[in-house]
Amino acid sequence: LQIKKVTLHKLFMKLKSPFETSFGLFKDREFFVIEVEDETGEIGFGESVAFALPLYNEETNKTVKHVLEDFLIPLAMDKPIHHPDELSERFKTIKRNYMAKSAIEGAIWDLYAKRRQQTLAETIGGVKKEIEVGISIGIQDSIEELLKIVDGYVKQGYKRMKIKIKPGRDYELIRKVREKFPNISIMVDANSAYTLDDFSIFAKLDTLDLMMIEQPLAHDDIIDHAKLQAKINTPICLDESIHSLEDAKKAIELGSCKIINIKVGRVGGITEAKKIHDYCQKHGIDVWCGGMLESGIGRAHNVAISTLAQFTLPGDTAGSSRYWEEDIVDPEIEVRNGVISVQDSPGIGHKLKRSLLESLRTEMFVIQN
Ligand code: OSB
Ligand code: MG
C-alpha cells in the first residue's frame, strides 16, 4: 500500500467530569485524530495520545504535529508499505517521540486491516473475543465522594478499581476503600509522585491487599523501583518508565516491576507493543492496557491490543460514556458487566462520526503527495 494523503484533525472534547492525577487536573482533552488514505482510496484512523502539556511525558500536541509533519509523514509516504511492522524500522532514525510515531502507525494498521478485510485484533494476532475492563478513578475531594464513586463502578461490573494517589491523598483513603470493599480488586496509580524517602507509605499500602502499585517513583527510573520492589510484596507495575522492549527487558531483569502497563502510544506503536507483549509472555510477566483518556478511535485500538493472550489483567479501557457525552465513533465503546465485546467489522471496527468530528475540530492539516 502507498499512503497518498494524511489529514491531522485537531479536536477539543470536554470531559463529562474532571479527572485529577498527581501531575494535574484534566477538564477536557485536546488531541489529534490522524486519517490516512492509500492509492485505492481506503482510509485508516489513529489517535495521538499526547496531551496539551508535557506533564505525563515530554510530548505535547505541538511536538506531535511538528514531528509528524516534518519527519514521520514524509517517511511514511516516501515508498510503499508491505506491512505496518516496517514502519518502526523506517522511523528508527527519529529518536523517541513515541506518541507521534504511534499515532501514524496506528492509522496505517487500521488501513492495512481494512484492506485485508480483517479486524485489527485478528491482524495483530489477537485471540480474545471479549476483554475484561477495569476503571481508573481520579483523585477525589473527599473520602465520601470516593466511596460513592467506587460503589457505582462496582455495581456497573467493572473488574477492578484503580485509584489515583498523590502525597497526602494516599494510605488513609485507600484503607477506607479497602475497609468498605474487602473483596474487590483495588490498585493505585501514583504517576511518579513519590521517592524512596516515602518508603513508610508504601509499607502501609503493602498491607491493603492491592493488586499492584503503578509507577510510584520517578517517570524515568528503574533503579529505585527495583529497590522498592525488593522491600514490598505488592507487585509494582511500570507505566511511565517503559518506552520500548529494551526498557521492559531491563526493568524485568533488575526486578523493577512484576507487571507492565502497555500503552501503545507510550511505546511508539503496535509493533513495539507486541514485542513487549511477546517478551512478557515468555517470561511470565502479566500485562494490561492502560488508557490516556482517549476518544473512541484510540479506545478501539486499545481494545484490539487487549485481545492478545498475555493481556491477562483488566485494562483502563472503560466505555465511551465514562468520558464523553457523545463519542466520535459509531457504535460507541460499550462495556457490559465489565466486559467489552470485540467488534467484528474490519479494522478498528468502529465508524467515525464525520459530522461530530467536524463540529469538535479546531484545526486541520492536510499533507498530500
Ligand atoms: O497513568 O494511566 C495513567 C490518565 C491520564 C494520564 C495518565 C494516566 C491516566 C489514567 C486514566 O489512569 C486512563 C483512562 O481512563 O483512559
Ligand atoms: Mg499510569
UniProtKB/TrEMBL annotation:
Location of the active site: K164 (proton donor), K263 (proton acceptor)
E.C. no: 4.2.1.113
InterPro entries: Enolase-like_C_sf, Enolase-like_N, Enolase_C-like, Mandelate_racemase_C, Mandelate_racemase_N_dom, MenC, OSBS/NAAAR
Catalysed reactions, as listed in the record: (1R,6R)-6-hydroxy-2-succinyl-cyclohexa-2,4-diene-1-carboxylate = 2-succinylbenzoate + H2O
GO molecular function annotations of the record: O-succinylbenzoate synthase activity
Residues holding Mg(2+): D189, E214, D239
Keywords: Lyase, Magnesium, Menaquinone biosynthesis, Metal-binding
Source species, domain of life: Bacteria
NCBIfam families documented for this protein: menC_lowGC_arch
Protein's job: Converts 2-succinyl-6-hydroxy-2,4-cyclohexadiene-1-carboxylate (SHCHC) to 2-succinylbenzoate (OSB).
Family label: Belongs to the mandelate racemase/muconate lactonizing enzyme family. MenC type 2 subfamily.
Protein name (record): o-succinylbenzoate synthase
